[in-house]
Amino acid sequence: MQRIAVLALILVACSSASPPTTHLPTTSVAEERIPLGADFTMAKPKAWVTKPTTSKMRVTSFTIGEAELVVYYFGEGGAGSTDANLERWFGQLTQPDGRPTRDVATIEHSKVAGQDLTLVSVSGHYRAEAMPGSDEMVDKPDQALLAAIVMSPHGPYFFKLLGPKATVDAQAAVFRATLQSLQLAR
After folding, report:
1. pLDDT tens digit string along 132-157?
2. Rg, C-alpha atoms of the chain
3. How far, in Å, CA of 108 to CA of 119, rounded?
């Protein structure tokens, strides 16, 4: 019994220290590899349902329970800097205590397929245009955003998973493993 208690204490102590630069898990998520534009391929989780793309900016999109993952690519110089995109995403979520969303977000930096990756995780009340330039607004409480900006030789790819907090939280490890599965296309 003492050995179990000591092991549990060691596990708790080891799990509480996490550096700001992370190493994404290498868990295999699927057997099927799919192309992402001209730059990457990735392993597609079997549970993710591919949706038809609705614009040229969308490389692919998936339904994941009640959440949606969209992968965007705007070209070599499109969509602005990493910070500009993070600020745009933070502006779509408000916090119940009024704090700025950037102050509660977790931002991590890593590499995948030899490319720079910025990963952000945050939750809050989501309010944004249904489509850029639209008068229609989406307004949903208790949402979470798990998103990544992955650089490529031809510009950044944007992975944006958004949906109910419980759904996004449940998919976090799979999302990270999917990012880790990225390979440069040959």
Report:
1. 788 899 999 999 999 999 999 999 99
2. 18
3. 5
pLDDT in tens, 81-118: 999 999 999 999 999 999 999 999 999 999 999 999 99
Residues 124 and 139: beta-carbon distance below 8 Å: no
Domain topology for 29-184:
Protein Transport Mog1p; Chain A (3.40.1000)
Burial class (CB in 10 A: 0-12, 13-18, 19+), 74: middle
Q: One-letter amino acid identity for 167?
A: T
Per-residue burial over 3-33, b = 16 or more CB atoms within 10 Å of its CB, e = otherwise: eeeeeeeeeeeeeeeeeeeeebeeeebbeee
Would you say 101 and 93 are in contact if contact means Cβ atoms under 8 Å apart? yes
For 63, 107, 109, the CA distances from 82, given in Å and listed in that order, are 25, 11, 11
Q: Report whether 56 contacts 75 (CB < 8 A).
A: no
Domain ranges of the chain: 29-184
